[in-house]
Amino acid sequence: METTFSSKQVAAETGLSVHTLRYYEQEGLIDGIQRDANGYRIYSASDIAWFQVITYFRKLGLSVQEIKLFNIPKNGQTSSATARREFMETYREKVVEQMKELQDSLDKIDYKIEFFRNMERSESAAKSKTQSKSDMQAEHADFE
After folding, report:
1. Comparing C-alpha atoms, which of 4, 7, 5 is closest to residue 16?
2. Closest Cα to residue 30, out of 59, 60, 61, 70?
3. For residues 129 and 9, what is the distance between their CA atoms, to the nearest angstrom?
4. Element (H, E) at 94
5. How does pLDDT run across 90-116, given as a tens digit for each residue?
């Protein structure tokens, strides 16, 4: 007999809340969840593994809708593995584009940091000149 797990056990194992487990089931990300005699959900080890895959995809930034697409082959002629590979290739392109955008933002931030460093140096140099001039004036005042 296969080992089964309660909602609380699956939540503890996956780090998801019981509510999130039910939400993913309602959204069709996972199906075939069995029920015990009292109507409580009971999960298998493969269900836990799939929840971990879903969690991984969510951490990658995929939406629930995108994960649904990952689950469904695009047409009857394409194999599940082919559809999933094509999905991941498309998603990879999206991530590469996001990385380019982030690199552009980082470059702009670095430019601004250097701009403000130069500004600080200029302010510091101007302050030093002003301070030196006032020190000299104070020294001359002592002689008067």
Report:
1. 7
2. 70
3. 70
4. helix 80-143
5. 889 988 999 999 999 999 999 999 999
- pLDDT value at residue 78: 59
Phi, psi dihedral angles at 78 (to 5 degrees):
-95, 135
Report, in angstroms and rounded to the nearest whole number, the Rg of the chain calculated over CA atoms.
31
What is residue 100's predicted lDDT score, i.e. its pLDDT? 97
Residue 38: both structure tokens together: 């009292």
One-letter amino acid identity for 24?
A: Y
Which residues make Cβ contacts (< 8 Å) with residue 101, sequence separation at least 6? none
3-state secondary structure of 65: helix
Dist CA 122 CA 14 (whole Å): 54
**CA distances to 25, 38, 109, 120, 125 from 112, in Å:** 47, 63, 5, 12, 20
Q: How many CB atoms lie within 10 A of CB 18?
A: 14
Half-sphere exposure for 49 (CA within 13 Å, toward CB) = 3
Whole-number Å distance between alpha carbons of 63 and 29 = 11
pLDDT above 70 for 6: yes
Structure tokens at 141: 């005042």
